[in-house]
């Protein structure tokens, strides 16, 4: 994506656990079901149907949830995996045009680590920047609580 065709959402969060634990939570289907989707978000009325992933560069993922009676399949491809420092993947919904890109950078701290998430959205989604930032912020808060 060139810089003229997208807008960035950036969220930073500190964790009290190791970079490895934070990184691995992005590639573990059981953990993803605990912090990214499902019961942690009662306002979504959502349940996890199936989470599958092939965590290698070029591998794909599929996170199927049932939200308010409708199944939504979040899909993507892993573009870069550098444990425990960096994870880059595409993000989209099956059956919809286009995808975005998510970049996870993790740096160790004296106690724990800091994660910076950058979500590159196509310019057409500029009206959703605030909503996307709020969603990722909440997910990272739930991830921190799940890991502590």
Read across the widest sheet, the strand sequence of neighbours is: 1-7-6-5-4-3-2
Report how far the terminal alpha carbons are from each other: 35 Å
Helix content: 10-25%
Strand content: 35-45%
How many structural domains? Answer: 1
- Cα-based radius of gyration, to the nearest Å: 15 Å
CATH superfamily, by name, is START domain
Task: Tell me about the largest β-sheet.
Answer: 7 strands, antiparallel
Q: How many β-strand stretches?
A: 7
CATH topology: Alpha-D-Glucose-1,6-Bisphosphate, Chain A, domain 4
Low-confidence stretches: none
Description:
This protein is α+β, with helices and mostly antiparallel strands. The chain has a single domain, classed as START domain (Alpha-D-Glucose-1,6-Bisphosphate, Chain A, domain 4, 2-Layer Sandwich), CATH 3.30.530.20. About 20% of the residues lie in helices and about 45% in strands. The protein contains three helices and seven strands; from the N terminus they run βααββββββα. The protein has helices at about 20-25, 30-35, 130-145; strands at about 5-15, 45-55, 60-65, 70-80, 85-95, 100-110, 115-120. It has a seven-stranded antiparallel beta sheet with strand order 1-7-6-5-4-3-2. The protein is globular, with a radius of gyration of 15 Å. It starts with 5 loop residues before the first strand and ends with a helix. The mean pLDDT is about 90.
């Amino acid at each position: 994506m060139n810089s003229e065709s997208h807008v960035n959402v950036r969220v930073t969060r500190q964790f009290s656990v190791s970079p490895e634990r934070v990184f691995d939570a992005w590639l573990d289907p059981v953990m993803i079901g605990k912090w990214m989707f499902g019961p942690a978000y009662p306002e979504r009325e959502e349940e996890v149907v199936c989470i599958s992933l092939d965590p290698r560069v070029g591998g794909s993922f599929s996170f199927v949830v049932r939200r308010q009676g409708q199944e939504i399949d979040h899909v993507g491809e892993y573009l870069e995996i550098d444990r425990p420092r960096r994870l880059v993947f595409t993000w989209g919904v099956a059956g919809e045009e286009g995808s975005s890109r998510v970049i996870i950078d993790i740096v160790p701290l004296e106690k724990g680590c800091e994660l910076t998430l950058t979500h590159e959205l196509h310019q057409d989604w500029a009206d959703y920047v605030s909503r996307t930032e709020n969603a990722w912020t909440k997910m990272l808060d739930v991830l921190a609580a799940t890991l502590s």
